[in-house]
Write a structure and sequence with these properties.
Blueprint lengths: L1 H14 L13 E5 L4 H13 L2 E6 L18 E5 L12 E4 L6 H6 L1 H22 L2 E7 L26 H21 L3 E6 L2 E2 L10 H10 L4 E4 L5 E3 L1 E2 H13 L6 E3 L4 E3 H11 L6 E4 L14 H7 L7 H17 L8
Parallel strand pairs: 1-2, 1-4, 2-3, 4-5, 5-6, 6-11, 7-10, 8-13
Antiparallel strand pairs: 9-12
Bound molecules: nicotinamide-adenine-dinucleotide (NAD) and uridine-5'-diphosphate (UDP) (2 copies).
Length: about 350
């Protein structure tokens, strides 16, 4: 329609920075796949707050209506139960493509489905972006670096991924999704953006999703021992969700394709993380060692120089500041409102 042409031209002008800041901006129509999930729902909040119209497409595999229910009834919000593995016709200006389970427990549950989501699902969303001329942002992952031989990881590093292991459905799936994204960019002239997200935590994570921060926090709150896998000396770098959402939006609005590492360079061993959780929740919380999972990356820490330079972005919330915000949310969800006044 004329409106579509008009609006995407408007967007291109706006995004290219040709319209002076302060000029009233017309809302965009934005598709967020996986928008009922942990990261997606926080992104949706920011987009709605900014005045955009948001369509969420989600199959509720790991997402929950509770995460977006506060937007029900808002004419700028629409929720579609749909699996991205199936084609869909929509008219939008931008696509944030997040649909894919992120916790190892969830993505290993049905590995073939994980690959289909990453490959066929991403292909469909790219096809949609091509048809309507929308800008497309892929949420890839630090997992594309596998068990990295370079530390910290820079975007130019090609990674060390086992193609036939139990994590491959996710790692190779995301690598293929990156390839598809670049091929649509080169072949169909599509405007694309690629984010490589490092471990992110915050309110609305699934309480029992098996990821380390959610496990430790839920365990400490329930007075269960925190389960440290392996010797606990492996490292991760933990980013608070609002920092990630800010990075994703800057990436989408900016003029660089990427890929960009989006993560907090603060690196912790799992034993150090357990200590932070003890300090935050319960100094007497116990630790219990369990065998580690197969192909677990030994260390991971983003080099974020590129994002700093080209997006003017860096995370603002260190682990010791972000963790209490997540703990409040978990306490309420585990014990009910009553529990939030505890300790
Ligand atoms: P999440 O599991 O909370 O959210 C994923 C959402 O996608 C859920 O709402 C789920 O129901 C939906 N979904 C899954 N498969 C789908 C399908 N086939 N069709 C439609 N919807 C589907 O995970 P998250 O932490 O919010 O992660 C969001 C994105 O960010 C994912 O693509 C993930 O790979 C990426 N990422 C996250 C992290 C992190 O630490 N959270 C790290 C790296 C990358
Ligand atoms: N697709 C979709 N919605 C659209 C346009 C395309 O889901 O609005 C799907 C389409 O069904 C196809 C994929 O995206 O499976 C790739 O589409 P493209 O047009 O790039 O390739 P082709 O259809 O020629 O294979
Ligand atoms: N881990 C742990 N205890 C748990 C869950 C995970 O020690 O209860 C470890 C896991 O072995 C890995 C790290 O924490 O070394 C991060 O795991 P997670 O599943 O959170 O994310 P990943 O970075 O592996 O995708």
């Amino acid at each position: 329609s004329l409106d579509l042409v008009h609006r995407s031209t408007y967007e291109r002008t706006f995004v290219a920075g040709k319209i002076p800041l302060g000029l009233k901006r017309k809302g965009l129509r934005i598709l967020v796949t996986g928008g009922a999930g942990f990261v997606g729902s926080h992104l949706v909040d920011r987009l709605i707050e900014r005045g955009d119209s948001v369509i969420v497409v989600d199959n509720f595999f790991t997402g929950r209506k509770e995460n977006v229910m506060h937007h029900y009834g808002n004419p700028n919000f629409e929720m579609i139960r749909h699996d991205v593995v199936e084609p869909i016709l929509l008219e939008v200006d931008q696509i944030y493509h997040l649909a894919c389970p992120a916790s190892p427990v969830h993505y290993k549950f049905n590995p073939v489905k994980t690959i289909k989501t990453n490959v066929v699902g991403t292909l469909n969303m790219l096809g949609l972006a091509k048809r309507v001329g929308a800008r497309f942002l892929l949420t890839s992952t630090s997992e594309v670096y596998g068990d990295p031989l370079q530390h910290p990881q820079v975007e130019t590093y090609w990674g060390n991924v086992n193609p036939i292991g139990v994590r491959s459905c996710y790692d190779e799936g995301k690598r293929t999704a990156e390839t598809l994204t670049m091929d649509y960019h080169r072949g169909a002239n599509l405007e694309v953006r690629i984010a490589r997200i490092f471990n992110t935590y915050g309110p609305r994570m699934c309480i029992d999703d098996g990821r380390v921060v959610s496990n430790f926090v839920a365990q400490a709150l329930r007075k269960e021992p925190m389960t440290v896998y392996g010797d606990g000396k492996q490292t991760r770098s933990f980013q608070y969700v609002s920092d990630l959402v800010e990075g994703l939006m800057r990436l989408m609005e900016g003029e660089h394709v990427g890929p960009f590492n989006l993560g907090n360079p603060g690196e912790f061993t799992m034993l150090e993380l357990a200590k932070v959780v003890q300090d935050t929740i319960d100094p007497n919380a116990k630790i219990e060692f369990r065998p580690n999972t197969e192909d677990d990356p030994h260390k991971r820490k983003p080099d974020i120089s590129r994002a700093k330079e080209q997006l003017g972005w860096e995370p603002k919330i260190p682990l010791r500041q972000g963790l209490p915000l997540m703990v409040n949310d978990f306490r309420t969800r585990i014990f009910g409102d009553h529990g939030s006044s505890e300790s």
